[in-house]
Amino acid sequence: MNLPSFSSVSLERHLPILSWAKVYDKDTLTSDLVAAVIVTIMLIPQSLAYALLAGLPAEMGLYASILPLLAYAVFGTSRALAVGPVAVVSLMTAAAVGNLGLDSPAEYALAAITLAFMSGVMLTVMGVLRLGFLANFLSHPVIAGFITASGILIATSQLKHLLGVEAHGHNLVEFIGSLLAHLDQTNLITLVMGALTVGFLFWVRKGLKPLLRKAGLSPRMADILAKAGPVAAVAATTLVTWLFGLHNYGVAIVGEVPMGLPPLTLPSLNPELWGQLALSALLISVIGFVESVSVAQTLAAKKRQRIVPDQELVGLGTSNIAASLSGGYPVTGGFARSVVNFDAGAETPAAGAYTAVGILLAALLLTPLLYFLPKATLAATIIVAVLSLVDLSILSRSWSYSRMDFAAVAATIFLTLGFGVELGVSAGVGISIGLFLFKTSRPHVAEVGLVPGTQHFRNVLRHSVQTLPHVVTLRVDESLYFANARFLEDYITDRVVRDKQLRHIVLQFTAVNEVDMSALESLEAVNHRLKDLGIALHLSEVKGPVMDRLQRSHFLDEIDGQVFLSHWDAWCALKDDPKAPEAPLAGQTAAQ
Amino acid sequence: MNLPSFSSVSLERHLPILSWAKVYDKDTLTSDLVAAVIVTIMLIPQSLAYALLAGLPAEMGLYASILPLLAYAVFGTSRALAVGPVAVVSLMTAAAVGNLGLDSPAEYALAAITLAFMSGVMLTVMGVLRLGFLANFLSHPVIAGFITASGILIATSQLKHLLGVEAHGHNLVEFIGSLLAHLDQTNLITLVMGALTVGFLFWVRKGLKPLLRKAGLSPRMADILAKAGPVAAVAATTLVTWLFGLHNYGVAIVGEVPMGLPPLTLPSLNPELWGQLALSALLISVIGFVESVSVAQTLAAKKRQRIVPDQELVGLGTSNIAASLSGGYPVTGGFARSVVNFDAGAETPAAGAYTAVGILLAALLLTPLLYFLPKATLAATIIVAVLSLVDLSILSRSWSYSRMDFAAVAATIFLTLGFGVELGVSAGVGISIGLFLFKTSRPHVAEVGLVPGTQHFRNVLRHSVQTLPHVVTLRVDESLYFANARFLEDYITDRVVRDKQLRHIVLQFTAVNEVDMSALESLEAVNHRLKDLGIALHLSEVKGPVMDRLQRSHFLDEIDGQVFLSHWDAWCALKDDPKAPEAPLAGQTAAQ
Known about the structure:
2 copies of one chain form a homodimer. By secondary structure, chain A is mainly alpha-helical. Helix content of chain A is 63%, strand content 5%. In chain A, the strands form 2 sheets. A 6-stranded mixed sheet of chain A has the order 4-3-5-6-7-8. Chain A has a two-stranded antiparallel ribbon with strand order 1-2. Chains A and B meet through helix 8, helix 18, helix 20, helix 21 and helix 22 of A and helix 8, helix 18, helix 20, helix 21 and helix 22 of B.
C-alpha cells in the first residue's frame, strides 16, 4: 500500500525526529552523550552571561537552554545544531526591550518572554508558509558586517563589568564617552580579576590544548578539558570572591539565583506591547534564522547530510515558543556551540536533548553555588567569545571584489555601531536591495561581433571581431523590466541616429530573462521609431519563457524583422542583405 | 576658441530657452500664437474646475496657470508640453491637504502653496542631481492602474456637485454610501443643468467636429470651435443662472472671484507642516513628473525631437516654485492639454508663455463674469475630462501578458479606490519591486544540449538536442546575487547527487550579468562540494564585466575546470573526456 508510506514520509518531514529515532542505537547514544556533556559544560557559563547581556536575570539564560533544546530535537533537521541563548540575539533582545523604557525588572522579563513568543510564532508561520527564501535577502556581506559590528558593541558593553563602573549610551560613541567619564570609579579588585580571567580564557583557547597533548592526554580528553576553561574560571573566581568576601569590597556578584525547575510563563497579550515589539521580533527571527541555518548547512555538508531550511524555521520557531513558556528569552542556533557539538561527535538532535537534561540538573542543583559568581567573570567569558566574531577583513575583501558589496558592508557596520542593531541591519538589507535595483536599472549593453573562425559573438570593445556595416547587434545584459525599459529605449535611439548605413538592428536576447509589460511597451515604441527610419528590428536567442510571453502579445507580428534561434543564423541571413524591408528614409530625413 | 562654445552649450543645457529663442521667427510666432489661443480657451474652465477639485478657491487655478507656464518656457525642454493644474495632481493635493484636518480656508490654501513649493524644490534638486531615473521604478502598468483609479475617484467625487448634495468619505465605498444617503436632498435644477452640460460636452467631443466639417468649416476652425465647448457651456450656464436667479433656488455657484494680478505668496516654513506634507510632496512630484515626461516624450518623438528628462525635472520644479510664489498650487504637464497644444501647431515653449498671458488677461478682466458660474458646470467639465483617463482594459491586457504585471495593476487600482491615492501608488511601486525581487530570487535554470548541425545550445526540455552522459550544462537565467545565491547552491547540489555518471558540470554564464560577493561564496561552496564528489566545475561564455570581477577573486584558481570562451569550445573539449580531474568517488560514496 502506498498511502501509509506516503503519509509517514510526510509526517517525517514535519517531525524530523521520526526519521532518526527509529534507527537510534547504542553507538549513537554514546556519541551523543559525550557531545552533550561537553556542550553542557560550555553552555552553563555562556547562558548565564548572555542573559546578563540581554539585561535579564541570570537564571533566564539557564531556562532558555532547557525546553527550547527539546523542541528543536523534535522539530529541527540539523544533526549538530546546538540551540540556546546566543550573543547577537541577546544584544538585539537588550536593544528591543531597552527601547520600551520599562522600569521594573518583572516587566522587562515579561517583555523578553513576549519577544520570544512573537519571534517563535513568526518563525513557525514562515516555516509553514515556506517563506525561508526571504532570509536570502540578507546578503552575506551584510550579515558579516552586522555580526562584526555586534561583536564590537557586545565586547565594549562588557567593559563596564570588567571595570566595575556604570555606563550607558545609545550608541558606541556615547557609551565609550560614558565609560571614560566613570573611569575614576573603577573597582581595582574587579578589574584585576576580570583582566586575569580574560587572559586565562584566551590562553585556554590558544595554549592549553597543545600543552595537554604534550602532557600525554588523548586528543579528546585535551579537547574536553580545554572546553571546560570557562567553567574553571567561574569556579575559581566564585571561590576567591567567597573566601575573601570580595563583594564587600565592591565586586559585583550575580547574587541569588532561584533553584528549581523552569517556571511556567505566558507571554503578555497587550496589543500595544506587541506593536512596539513587532519589528524587533521580525529582525531577531530573521537574523537568528540566517545565523543558525548557515551553521547548520556548513556542518551538514561536512557529513553529506542536508537540512531543510523551511523545516528549520519550524524547529527554531517551536524552540522560541518553548522558551517563552518556560521563563526563557529568544534563542537560536549558536555558531561556536554547534561546532563544539559537531566536533565532540554529536550524531543526532538527541545530543541537544541530553544537553537540556544537563542544564536542567544545573538549574536544580548548582544555582546556590552561583551566588558569589562575579559579574566580571561572565563579562570576560562574553568578551573572549564575541571577539572571535569580529572580522574587519570583510571590509577589505568586499572593497577589492565589488564596490557595491563594500558599500553595503560599510553602511551596515557604521550604522550598527552608530545607531544600534535594528537600524544597522535594516539599512544593510535596504541598501543592498537598492543597489541591486540601481544596477539593474542601468544595464550593461555590449555591441557584439563575430569571433573569426567560430559561430560565437562577443563585445566589439573587448575582442577582435568581425562586424557588418549595415547590421548592429546589441546584447543587453539584463532582464528588461520597468526600471530599465526607458534606458533601453534611449540607448537604442541614440545608437541608431548616429549611423546612416544602418538597416538592421538585432537584439541578442541571451541575457534577457524577462520582458515585463513596461519593457514590452518600450520595445514597441523602439520598433515604431525604427520603422520610421527604415530599420528592421530582429531578435535572436530568445529564451523559452520569454518567447512564450512575447507570443501572447502582438509585438512579434509588428516587427519587420525576424526572431532567429541562434545569433549565427541572424548573421548568415542578414550579412548579404544591405537593404531594409521598406526604405522611407529619403523622404523622412527632411523632418529631422 | 573652444571654451566659450563649450560654456554656451552647457548654458543651453540648463536654460533650454537659449537654444530656440535665437532662431525664433515670424512663422513660429504665428503657430505658437494660434496654439496659445486654443489652449487658453481650454484652460480657463479647466483651471477653475481643478482648483475646486483640489478643495481650493477657483482663482488659485487661474494663478497656477500663469507664472508656472513662464517658468516652464524658460527651463523646460519639451516644445509642446502644456503645464498647469491637472486632474490627478489636484486630487492628490486634495488628499494631502485634506489629511491635515485644517479648518480655515486660508490655512488650507497655505498648505497647498507649501506643497507646491516643496514639490518644486524636490523636483529641481532631483533634476540637478540627475535622479530622473528614479521615476522608472513606477512601472507602466502601475501608472496606468493609478490613473484609471484616480479618474474613477475624481468622476465620482464630482457627482455631489452634479446632484447639489453634500457627501464625504475616505474611500470610494464610504463616499458612495454618503452620496446615496443624501440623495433625497438632490437639487433638481442643479441636476438637470449638470446632466445637460455633461451630455453637451460629450456631444461636443464626439459629434460637433464632423458636423462643423459638413457645414463647410475648415478643419482647423472646426477644431477650435470644438475645443471651445467647455467655454460655451460655462458661458451658457452662467447666463441662465444669472437670468433666472437660479442661485436662489439652491444652485451652488462659484461666487466672488477676486479680480487682478496673482498675489505674491510665500510657503509656510513650519517644520511640522513640512514633515506632514513631505511624503505627499514626493508622491506628487514623482507622479506629476512621470505623467508629464511620458506625454512630452510621445509628442517629441512624433517630430524627432528629444527631451532631456533630468532637465524636465528642473522645468517642472521651477514651475511649481513659481506656482507657490504666485498663489497657485502643484502643477505638471497635462496630457489632453499638451496634445491640443501640439495638434494646434505649437512649435516652441513660447506658446506656453502666450497661454500664460491669455490666462492673465482672464484673471484681470473676466473674473467678475464668473460670479454666477454654477459649480455643477465645472463638475461636468471635470467628469467629461477624466472619464477619458479611465481605461480598465489594462486589467485584461496585463492579465493575458503577465500575472506579475496584473498583480501590480490590480493592487494599485484596488488600493487607490479603497485606501486613497497615496497608499495606492506607493503600494503599486512596492508590489512591483517586490515581485521583481521575488522572481529574480528563484531564477529559471535550463539544462542545455547541442542543437544538431549547429554550434548552438538550447534547453533539453524544449528542443531536441544532443547531450553527453558525463557532462551537464546548466544555463542559469539570472544574475547571481544574494537573493538567489543559496537557490543556485541547492539546485546544483540536487542535480549532482542523482547522477552517478557525471564528471563535468559546466555553468553557461550567458545570462549571468553580475556575480556579487554572496554568489561568489556560494559558487565557492558548490566548487568544494563538487570537488569532494570528483566532479569538475567549468564556466563558459562569461561576460567581460563578470570575468573582470572573478579574476580579482581566488575562485578561478580554485576550480578544477576551465573557463571556455564559447560553449561550443566546452563541448569540444569535454566530449571525449569522461574522467574527472581527480576521481576520489569510489572511496567517498561510502560516506553517503
